């Protein structure tokens, strides 16, 4: 909140008295205080140290604690925090809290304190500033506990929980989150619908904690519970956090489709909130698209299209373009020239899978015309290490995407052609068919059995008539036998192209 906002908000609380004749002395006093306050404001930019002293002089001019003294202390504390005078800031903040019980209205004091805490949260840059923040929160909780201001108590505790999350103090954070959940529940242990907005914010902190500690089981349960909260009208940034963590959870389970859906929802929420995190989540969305192997461009949607040419996202845009074109050389070059992408641990962890997919496809494409190749050839063409080439080729052979045998000692691979394998299989079937036919002919064919008389020919006669039946004896070699043999087999043997 700006200083002018403070003034306007303060003015709304004032009651003006138009009985001038009895008010000259008091009016003069107020003018002096006001002039001192605004004189200090003019000094803020050029001489903040003197401005602090001027602001601290405002409360001393009031006979009783009032609005001007409250505002003067606020300005002094903000400047002291910026100047890194943390001990003085804490001292004067403690004095400021004495005004909230009687000198200013409850609503105005609550808004002012909350804005003060927001201010120091945004300006905290080092460990000393964080320790100062923690003291501010402790003093606030102590002060408002006696006034029974539950709303400010919740807001301050949530800010304290955020501080512990940032410091990765998970033990204190877990205790605080448990306490906050209890305060947002009814007596039967169910979530209080009237505090749904606070519940979602607490869930978001707990989800972030379990995402950072990689407790996927607990994270999944909390994520599902958070999505069931219907009584809240949460800030879109809170839903952006919840959805982002959900996307990361699904990614760890290799559930690319659900991850893509959550990242898209997270992006929309961050975009609505005006949060810069939308850019990072958009990178996650592009990453997921590549892992899915999808041909759909993630920048085709109405929400993401305006960011397609954003320089902050251009590297990921180029990556997905190279991926969808199977252009391994462009892909590797983009990664090499944009190493800052890997500064994000989540991208660094998952981009390896995308890169491996790209290299695997490139290897298959490269060796397609060959029946024999060396690992060194692949390494040189794709500009990757021999060890990685060996790993990829081994995977392809085990996964039966490449039919061949690898000689690790000599670094060579012999590829078995599908055509050769089919030809060998056909020959095997043809040979089996011939063997089966030959056995049938010899064992069961009547034309190949000798008669019981055992002679070369036998005659059967009847009453004045003679009839002859010719039989072939395989033991007899002669023109007739040869002709019978050739003729008998010619019509029954399968052709070379037959599979039986």
Automatic annotation (TrEMBL):
Pfam families with a match to the protein in the record: PCI
PROSITE patterns in UniProt: PCI
GO terms under cellular component: COP9 signalosome; cytoplasm
Cellular compartment(s): Cytoplasm; Nucleus
Biased amino acid composition, Polar residues: 453-474
Location (main, coarse): cytoplasm
Region called Disordered, residue ranges: 1-30, 452-500
Statement: the UniProt record of this protein carries the keyword Nucleus: yes
Alphabetized UniProt keyword annotations: Cytoplasm, Nucleus, Signalosome
Occurrences of domain PCI (ranges): 252-420
Record carries keyword Nucleus: yes
Assembly information from the UniProt record: Component of the COP9 signalosome (CSN) complex.
Family, per entry: Belongs to the CSN2 family.
Identification of the protein by name: COP9 signalosome complex subunit 2
